[in-house]
Fold:
Amino acid sequence: MKRRTFLKYTTAVITGFVLYLWYKMLQMRQMTLTAKKLLLPYDRTKKVAFQGDYIVVNKNGNKPVVFSSHCTHLGCVINKKEGDVLVCPCHGSRFDLNGNPVKGPAYKPLQKVPFETDKNSGNLTVKTT
Ligand code: FES
Structure:
C-alpha cells in the first residue's frame, strides 16, 4: 500500500471515530436535558412513606433519605413496613430503615436516590429518566 493511500484510510477511520464520539456525546447530553423531575410530597410526621417507585424514610426527624422501592432481589416493589423493617411482598426480603438487608434472599442494600428539597414547600424532588 502506498503511503498516500494509507494516510487517506487512516484519516477516514479517525474522522469516523471522532464523529461517532461526537454523536454519542450529543445523545448523552440530550438524555441529561430530558431527565424529568418528580415531586414527592414530604410529610415530616411519617417515618416511612411509600410513593410509587420511591420510599421516603425520615428517621427521628433527621434529614430524609429516598430509596428506590424496587427490591434488590428481583425488583418487586416494596410497599410494606413491619415495625422498623421494610418488607418485600414477593419473597420476604427485609431491609432496615438504612436500606440494608436484614433478611434474604436480597443481599444488596436498597438503592439510594439523590433528591433535592424545596425550601418553601419542603417537598422532595427526584430526577427520573
Ligand atoms: S423480589 Fe424482593 S425478595 Fe424477591
